[in-house]
Amino acid sequence: MNLIFGWLDLRNKAAHGKYSEYNENQVKKMIMGVRDYVHNLEEFFDSTLKIEISSIFSEWDSFIENFYRRHVIID
User: Fold this and answer.
1) What is the pLDDT of residue 54?
2) Which of 30, 60, 66, 73 is the most buried (most CB within 10 A)?
3) For the chain, which residues score pLDDT lower than 70?
4) Could you tell me which residues come within 8 angstroms of residue 45 by beta carbon, excluding any fewer than 6 positions away?
5) Could you give the number of structural domains in the chain?
6) pTM
7) E strand segments, 1-75
8) What is the rounded distance in angstroms from the CA atom of residue 11 to the CA atom of residue 9?
9) Backbone φ and ψ of 66, nearest 5°
10) What range does the domain containing 58 cover?
11) Do 7 and 30 contact (CB within 8 A), yes or no?
């Protein structure tokens, strides 16, 4: 649960323009962690719910890509 709260904290920092309070490595770890978390959830649900979760995962993936582009300086 602490990991999820950490992701939420990072998201809030980005949403409120506190860019100096996190770094690119933290964002990359959050992206990988959320993707793994959602993927693991899929394994526990039946096929009907998997479709819904896959849809949520797809939307989340788009959000993460946009978040990364906006909040991480790419060299």
Assistant:
1) 66
2) 30
3) 1, 45-57, 71-75
4) 53
5) 1
6) 0.57
7) none
8) 5
9) -65, -40
10) 2-71
11) yes
